Amino acid sequence: MSPGQWAHYSLSGNQSEGTVDALFTVKKVDGANVTLSDLDTFSDGHTTTDTIVVSISTGPIVPSSGQYFVISPQKQVGDLVYPGDNVHYKGFPIQDVTARPYASASRQVAHVHAQNSSQIYVSTPTTTFEDFYWDDSTGMFTEIAKSLNGTEVLHVVMSATNLWQPDSSFDSFLVPSAVVSLISAGLIGVILVGRYRRKAKLSG
Question: Which of 39, 98, 127, 196 could form a disulfide with 66 if both were Cys (CB 3.0 to 4.6 A apart)?
């Protein structure tokens, strides 16, 4: 991953907070730290820009922020997503590496399926399921899908990028649907994963 590389994402679901498109651009790579700009476009046409710094060693500063935008490339099954933090991420290993279609190409992607139960704000416990996918050769995220009590509340999927060239034989009908199957993925236990947040200053 290097400065100037970018990826567009389409967003849907009520936890997208009105964002319909996001453009992430790599601004700087300094050791384990990757600095990204995030240009968000909302359904009413207005835009906002944020700067995000993620360590591929220790992960987001606040684990519950859900800002799992970049990891180390070439992760193997069983490897921790962020090996430098064994407190928050010791129960967050790569679960499988498989081929999936993104941005007009078939890509090998690392995947984590997570479950989180909470009773902080409600009398009845709520259960969320989140799937995170990262491109295996670059470490850039390709998709985030979240469901709450069986209803999808957020879907973020890469739609275009300059990280790779489109496959000449790519079948456009293979683009992932907005509904992600969570049944076949094995649970990895209760862990701290928060919803995707565009801005650190916004509260869930």
Answer: 196
Segments making up each domain of the chain, as ranges: 6-174
Q: Using CA atoms, how far apart are residues 19 and 32, in angstroms rounded to an integer? A: 29
- Please give the average per-residue pLDDT across 82-109, as a whole number: 91
Of 133, 109, 130, 141, the residue nearest 187 (C-alpha): 130
pLDDT 10s digits, 162-192: 999 998 765 544 444 333 333 233 222 223 2
Q: pLDDT grade, residue 193 (50/70/90)?
A: very low
Torsion sign, CA atoms 24, 26, 32, 33: negative
Contact 179, 152 (CB under 8 A): yes
Question: Where does residue 35 rank: exposed (0-12), middle (13-18), buried (19+ CB within 10 A)?
Answer: middle
Alpha-carbon distance 30 to 55, whole Å?
9
Could you give the CA distance from residue 14 to residue 175 in angstroms, rounded to a whole number?
A: 22
Domain 6-174 has CATH 2.30.30: no
